[in-house]
Design brief:
Length: 175
């Protein structure tokens, strides 16, 4: 654990703390990516799949509200690159920045700005328990060619839980 970045050590400590002192959080229902894409196609919507490979190209910061273990009010900030994968290659298609605030019972409330090259940006907001492996953001707006966007973003941890993973998959469904 000593070789991990400070944000990763904090996330691991928070996850351990949850299991010891708090009631287990209800997990977000597991929704297969294929089901999300199929539902989107049935509604005539557009679906994109992107990845944030945070372990490679992410930066983060924690604003800690006091001493000791993380508590309500602590805020996590990050910035990273968004890539699309095809034929074994990753191509950067944009960036993301965001913040998550710790709420009571170690739930997180997050807002993310995803900037997509040549298209504009999407803003999403949502919440999850630190032990979850996936959750949905509501798309609350967009800019450029994505102006007026609505829909949802399924965020899935690729290695561990959302509290410990720096690699996530975004499945973006625009209505």
């Amino acid at each position: 654990m000593a070789n991990l970045p400070p944000l990763a050590r904090l996330a691991l400590a928070v996850t351990s703390f949850i299991g010891i002192f708090l009631e287990p959080a209800q997990a977000v229902p597991r929704v297969p990516a294929a089901a999300v894409a199929a539902a989107a196609a049935a509604r005539g919507t557009r679906t994109w799949i992107w990845y944030e490979e945070g372990a490679k190209n992410n930066s983060g910061m924690v604003l800690h509200n006091g001493k000791g273990m993380p508590r309500a009010g602590d805020t996590f900030y990050w910035a990273g690159s968004i890539v699309a994968k095809a034929h074994g290659k990753s191509t950067q298609v944009g960036t993301d920045t965001g913040e998550c605030m710790v709420l009571p019972r170690f739930y997180m409330q997050c807002t993310t700005l995803i900037n997509i090259n040549k298209y504009g940006s999407l803003v999403g907001t949502g919440g999850y328990a630190l032990s979850d492996k996936a959750f949905f953001y509501a798309i609350t707006g967009g800019t450029g060619r994505l102006r007026g966007a609505s829909g949802q973003i399924l965020v899935k941890a690729l290695d561990g839980t959302l509290a410990t993973s720096f690699n996530v998959k975004y499945i973006v469904t625009l209505d």
